[in-house]
Design a protein that fits this description.
Elements (H helix, E strand, L loop, with lengths): L1 H5 L7 H6 L10 E4 L3 E5 L9 E5 L11 H22 L3 E5 L16 E6 L6 H6 L8 H15 L5
Antiparallel strand pairs: 1-2, 2-3, 3-5, 4-5
């Protein structure tokens, strides 16, 4: 409900807000920062471990991204897959982007990539019957686990 009710409230870009306050990374569930990008948890996840990979620059489209930004974004998606696989052993991943509100973008002004772990049978009756997602682990618990694995694996490696 927090997500749905928040759609009608005018807000600034939360990604830019997180970029501006590195001292609050843990509170904001920012997993990694690089020179060009940010990796953070989706606060309204489709599945446990749903991460967002975004450029530091507030850009809306792929056409606005530099080659270096695009390369770093994709490298971070790879690193997200690696650390999520080590932490929660998903059976697969959805990795994708939405451009424009009509295409499903909850934040249409700041381009970002969704990295969503998937498990066989994870689309269950709860979602089909009532639009309810069942998340089996708290964001804080998984954040701490991914930070630990990231340090052990020296990720991101950019």
């Amino acid at each position: 409900m927090e997500y749905i009710e928040g759609l009608s409230e005018p807000k600034g870009c939360f990604i830019c807000g997180y970029i501006a306050e590195p001292e609050r990374d843990k509170e904001n569930f920012v997993l990694w920062r690089t020179s060009r990008c940010l990796v953070l948890f989706n606060r309204f996840p489709y599945n446990n471990g749903h991460l967002l990979v975004a450029p530091i620059r507030h850009i809306e489209t792929l056409a606005e991204a530099t080659d270096d930004e695009l390369l770093e974004l994709l490298g971070l998606c790879r690193d997200c897959q690696e650390v999520l696989t080590a932490a929660i052993s998903p059976h697969g991943f959805n990795i994708g982007m939405n451009f424009g509100r009509c295409a499903g973008a909850g934040l249409p002004g700041h381009m970002h990539i969704h990295v969503v772990p998937r498990w066989d049978g994870d689309t269950n009756f709860m979602h089909v019957c009532s639009g309810t997602d069942v998340i089996s682990q708290s964001l804080t618990e998984l954040y701490d686990r991914l930070k630990q694995i990231s340090l052990e694996k020296n990720l991101p490696n950019l």
